[in-house]
Design a protein that fits this description.
Mean pLDDT: 83
Largest sheet: 3 strands, antiparallel
Strand content: 15-25%
Structural class: mainly beta
Number of helices: 3
Shape: rod-shaped
Low-confidence stretches: 1-8, 10-85
Number of strands: 27
Length: 411
């Protein structure tokens, strides 16, 4: 039993222990060194102050206190995590669309082509709404964005093996545009690769010679301007520039692909001949006063018994309105000027005698038959009146008083 003195000492001891505990001291008697480290057992004056803080700032402070001796448990995990990686305090990801994957390597799936969801620790999808704008395809196939047809792909791409790409080799269908045999192309304005339905592109002029130009994905007959195509076989461009391909004919004549010409307004002939050139096949195809040359197939003023003039008559190899001034005679026989008797040669420049065999006038080897000839007063070796020198060019009936030695005619 304790006497009164012992009891008093016991109570003092118990009260002291309570104060130690209140100040953060070990009730076992091992005191923590207070601020300053010099006064054993002294507690921080702020313990009961208005600040209410129980932490000390001495060099030997507890791990919860500030100072060089702070414990390594100061949230080291949070400080070591990369700034763009979202983690828990242990480095693990949140298994969400913005934090998905292995600890310390979390991914943001919000822009992932595989899908915007976190599926099994990887970016992916569970339904097609999680594949918006994915270049792989707009449909969720399993747990990854992809495609089952071209409609699941972005415009200008095809679906191959569940994935979208620009390749359409092997006859794949594109989503819009057309397939040029290897890749999807726009197909709206390329004359050699036209189409918008997603199928194989067409070369417009090869598909239809009268529709060489691709406009909005369709082949049209536009020609002659800018990037317009060239009309194909059997067609020329009428109204160029900005014209249309038209079938070749007499009023629309040209080589295939050329600019159409109306042959009715040309001197070479009213008919469109082979090769797309205006010409003739008879005198009726020529303008008045010209003849059709069978050899060239074109019209000219040159004529003969076999190439007669369209109107008028052929006088000395040239088409003339009539035969009044023809050197061969004043009669038009079968389209050629000539004579039927001497009366038809009275004013003929070749001579005043009619050669009934040829039906033309001549001088019959007699200078007297050249008295009215404009070529000259001498009967030349070819039996045609003419001149040997200027002496044969005297008189009012001759064309001039000088003899041209090259033609043997007065001028």
């Amino acid at each position: 039993m304790l006497d009164s003195v012992g009891m008093s000492r016991l109570l003092a001891l118990l009260m002291g222990a309570g104060l130690f505990a209140a100040c953060g001291l070990d009730v076992g008697g091992l005191a923590v060194a207070p601020d300053g480290g010099g006064d054993d057992g002294a507690v921080d004056a702020t313990a009961g102050g208005s600040g209410g803080s129980s932490s000390s700032s001495g060099n030997g402070g507890d791990a919860t206190r500030d100072g060089p001796g702070a414990d390594a448990s100061d949230d080291a995990t949070a400080k070591d995590a990369p700034a763009d990686v979202t983690t828990t305090d242990t480095g693990a990801c949140f298994d969400s669309s913005t934090s998905c994957g292995l600890p310390g390597s979390c991914l943001d799936c919000s822009a992932s082509p595989s899908g915007t969801a976190c599926v099994g620790g990887a970016c992916g999808c569970t339904d097609s709404s999680q594949c918006p704008g994915s270049p792989l395809g707009h449909k969720c196939i399993g747990t990854t964005c992809g495609c089952s047809s071209s409609s699941d792909c972005p415009m200008g791409q095809a679906c191959s093996g569940g994935t979208c790409s620009s390749s359409c080799a092997g006859g794949l269908t594109c989503n819009g545009g057309c397939c040029n045999g290897s890749v999807c192309v726009g197909g709206s304005s390329d004359n050699a690769a036209c189409g918008t339905g997603g199928g194989a592109c067409v070369a417009c002029v090869a598909q239809s010679p009268d529709k060489p130009t691709c406009v909005g994905g369709s082949c049209t007959s536009a020609c002659g301007a800018g990037s317009d195509g060239t009309c194909g076989a059997g067609y020329c461009c009428s109204g160029a520039p900005g014209g249309t391909c038209t079938g070749i004919g007499d009023s629309t004549c040209a080589p295939s692909g050329g600019a159409c010409v109306d042959c009715s307004a040309t001197a070479s002939g009213k008919k469109c001949e082979t090769g797309g050139v205006c010409g003739c096949s008879s005198s009726g195809d020529c303008p008045t006063g010209s003849a059709c040359n069978a050899g060239s197939g074109t019209c000219s003023t040159s004529c003969s018994a076999s190439s007669q003039c369209n109107g008028g008559c052929c006088s000395a190899g040239k088409c003339a309105p009539g035969c009044a001034n023809s050197p061969d005679g004043n009669q038009c026989n079968n389209g050629v000027c000539g004579c039927g008797g001497n009366n038809d040669c009275a004013a003929a420049a070749n001579g005043s005698v009619c050669n009934t065999s040829s039906g033309t006038c001549n001088c019959n080897n007699n200078d007297n038959n050249c008295g009215n000839s404009s070529y000259g007063t001498s009967c030349m070796g070819n039996n045609i009146c003419g001149c040997g020198d200027s002496g044969d060019c005297m008189g009012s009936h001759v064309a001039g008083n000088t003899c041209n030695p090259s033609t043997n005619r007065c001028q």
